[in-house]
């Protein structure tokens, strides 16, 4: 199984609680990706977000920079909000990064769990479904273009393309493109129907409850007669690794509290409660927070339900100190990953 990391960027805070610069957040994110590559993580995803607390608004730019500074890690978006972006520009940015990286780049196309990008780019959330459906179709058409790179497409959300060239082409001719979803049945069916890999973002509840969705995805995929090598499931979740479980909980809780307090202010969520945090950080919960043995065992347990091939964690939330973040990435790659491999080999 591949073990990795994802991030929306994480702005640090001053002692008085005010946010430090987004420039610092982006340079911290870049350093984290380079560190993840150096210590042996399999994947790093950059999720598109548009807030002062999480400012990684341009995954394509970040991935291109990381492509030039890394040597082995796979890089991708997690997710690109394709509904409010131009699929042509998204593809060109990631194809460029693919060429620089030697083919280590992929796209996860999602609708986004937040709607900040809709007013930012002049879209109406009323068109949420239509924007995603049509723009995903265009993104796939671009990826399927032949050696001449010419694309023909028409729809209602963007000017048509009539045999126009979309360049550069990525290393290997095509990009891996995943569907990203928070766990809806229609999205599982869409990914299976289109023969695409699927990423489930599981940020609460019992992760094993996603098993029926994964089964729905695999059944729809099989009915479509698609190439079996594209039938892939990955899981994105919250987590943090430290040398002891207690240390991991103590490091993760302040950031979790800060994030939920801010998201509650923006979206009307209830005030965060420590009991809710602790319930998710143990056993069958969705937060992979603990020492290497604990996190590895819980990932392998979920694999027994979902059979996923990649598990990657968002760990830098709510102004987690950078040194704790880098340590967690290193423990994930050097301690959790080999434990997961050993445990899966015993099954």
Q: SSE layout and pairings?
A:
Blueprint: E1 2-7, H1 22-39, E2 43-46, H2 59-69, E3 74-77, E4 80-81, H3 87-101, E5 105-110, H4 117-120, H5 128-143, E6 150-153, E7 161-165, E8 177-181, H6 185-194, E9 198-202, H7 211-223, E10 233-241, H8 245-267, H9 274-280, E11 287-290, H10 292-306, E12 310-314, H11 322-345
Parallel strand pairs: 1-2, 1-12, 2-3, 3-5, 4-5, 5-8, 8-9, 9-10, 10-11, 10-12
Antiparallel strand pairs: 6-7
Helix pairs in contact: 1-2, 1-11, 2-3, 3-5, 6-7, 10-11
InterPro entries: Bact_Lucif_Oxidored, Luciferase-like_dom, Luciferase-like_sf
Domain Luciferase-like: 18-304
Pfam families: Bac_luciferase (PF00296)
Structural notes for this entry:
There is one protein chain. This protein is of the alpha/beta class and 347 residues long. The protein is built from eleven helices and twelve strands. The chain is 45% helix and 17% strand. The model has no long low-confidence stretch (mean pLDDT 96). Strand 4 (80-81), helix 3 and strand 5 form a beta-alpha-beta unit.
């Amino acid at each position: 199984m591949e073990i990795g990391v994802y991030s929306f960027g994480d702005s640090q805070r001053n002692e008085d609680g005010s946010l430090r610069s987004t420039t610092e957040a982006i340079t911290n994110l870049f350093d984290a990706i380079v560190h993840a590559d150096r210590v042996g993580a399999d994947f790093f995803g950059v999720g598109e977000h548009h807030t002062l607390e999480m400012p990684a608004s341009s995954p394509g730019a970040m991935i291109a920079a990381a492509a030039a500074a890394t040597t082995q890690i796979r890089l991708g978006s997690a997710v690109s909000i394709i509904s409010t972006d131009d699929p042509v520009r998204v593809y060109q940015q990631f194809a460029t990064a693919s060429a620089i990286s030697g083919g280590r780049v992929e796209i996860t196309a999602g609708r986004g769990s937040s709607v900040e990008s809709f007013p930012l780019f002049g879209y109406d959330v009323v068109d949420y479904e239509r924007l995603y459906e049509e723009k995903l179709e265009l993104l796939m058409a671009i990826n399927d273009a032949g050696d001449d790179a010419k694309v023909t497409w028409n729809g209602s959300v963007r000017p048509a393309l009539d045999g126009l060239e979309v360049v550069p082409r990525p290393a290997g001719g095509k990009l891996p493109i995943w569907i990203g979803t928070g766990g809806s049945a229609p999205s599982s069916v869409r990914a299976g129907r289109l023969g695409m890999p699927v990423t489930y973002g599981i940020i609460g509840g019992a992760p094993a409850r996603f098993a029926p969705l994964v089964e729905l995805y695999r059944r729809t995929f099989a009915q479509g007669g698609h190439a079996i090598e594209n039938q892939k499931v990955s899981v994105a979740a919250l987590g943090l690794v430290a040398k002891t479980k207690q240390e991991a909980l103590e490091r993760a809780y302040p950031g979790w509290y800060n994030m939920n307090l801010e998201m509650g202010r923006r979206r009307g969520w209830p005030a965060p409660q420590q009991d809710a945090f602790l319930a998710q950080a143990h056993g069958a919960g969705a937060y992979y927070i603990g020492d290497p043995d604990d996190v590895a065992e819980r990932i392998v347990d979920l694999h027994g339900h979902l059979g996923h091939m990649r598990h990657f964690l968002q760990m830098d939330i709510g102004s987690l100190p950078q040194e704790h973040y880098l340590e967690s990435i290193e423990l994930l790659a050097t301690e959790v990953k080999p434990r997961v491999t050993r445990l899966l080999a015993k099954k």
